[in-house]
Amino acid sequence: EFMQASWDIEEVQAKGIQHLASFVKDKSAFPYLLTCTEVITLAMKTHIDSLDLQVEGCILLLEILSQALEQGVMMALDESVASCLLHTVRKHSENEVFLSMLCTLLMMASASEVAAENLRKVGIIPDLLSILRRFPHNEKICLSCCAVLWSLAVSENNADQAALTRALPVTSAVLQEHLQNGVVAESACSALWALALQGCLADSDYEPTAALLLDALRMNPERAVLVKNACLALASLVRLSETAALAILLDPKGSGIELIKDEYHLHLEEPGLAEALCLLMNEMVQYDEVMLDMRSHKVEKLLCEIKLQFPFS
């Protein structure tokens, strides 16, 4: 109430945020802090030029969201909060350090379908792409932005086809840049999977995207989630075009089928990965020419192994 009574006075907002932050470590205060997100973001929007207030507000929101995720509470940030955060992103789009923190906040918020939908409604996708173009070397920013893109792209009521189509070259560039960084590559593979699901690729995109996903598999064989996401992305590409299936078979760096077989044997205890691999195989055998080549790679033997490994799935 004290903050709401004096929106225009920056010092009041700063002191209010500091005082709220002092309750963060008190577990009993958490339910009350959950109700403060709108007040905090509105203070940030009202005093958008004060970087100190932006930083303190962002840190407090991160603390509240972290606790919410730890306790399994899904924080559905409403549209006004999403709008305030977008306003902050645009005002401080050149500040790499602050953006790094803000993008982490957006990533955590977008774990909620409602929050993701509200971020989509306020039109955040072009801003995320702009940030990725500006800071392609920043691992934290790339990880967060790709995760947010994934959350927004898998939304069922997607009306942002044009914006998402522009996301493909940017996301591919992020994956290319961070192929050896498993965490970022995993996030980028998820984003590419979502873009493929939404049909955001042109005919000329299938082959290079498939080759890039195979490179991600080669560079990060130990990361089961990345392997699963890359296989799901490849399956979506193959569903759309035989070109992608042929790119997997004829990759100049080595057969994609042999690579995927190796990945399966590396993660024998991962049913989700095996399921993704079967989905990919199922899409590939829709093409007669591809199926003949798969037989030469003894794929039937692999499928029998999977069937024995997971008889009840």
UniProtKB/TrEMBL annotation:
Keywords from the UniProt entry: ATP-binding, Kinase, Nucleotide-binding, Serine/threonine-protein kinase, Transferase
Lineage top rank: taxon: Eukaryota
Signal sequence annotation: none
First-level EC class: transferase
InterPro entries (UniProt xref): ARM-like, ARM-type_fold
EC number: 2.7.11.1
Gene3D superfamilies membership: Leucine-rich Repeat Variant
Descriptive protein name: Serine/threonine kinase-like domain-containing protein STKLD1
Species whose genome carries this gene: Sterrhoptilus dennistouni
Catalytic activity: L-threonyl-[protein] + ATP = O-phospho-L-threonyl-[protein] + ADP + H(+); L-seryl-[protein] + ATP = O-phospho-L-seryl-[protein] + ADP + H(+)
PANTHER family to which the protein is assigned, alphabetical: SERINE/THREONINE PROTEIN KINASE, SERINE_THREONINE KINASE LIKE DOMAIN CONTAINING 1
Sample GO molecular function, one term: protein serine/threonine kinase activity
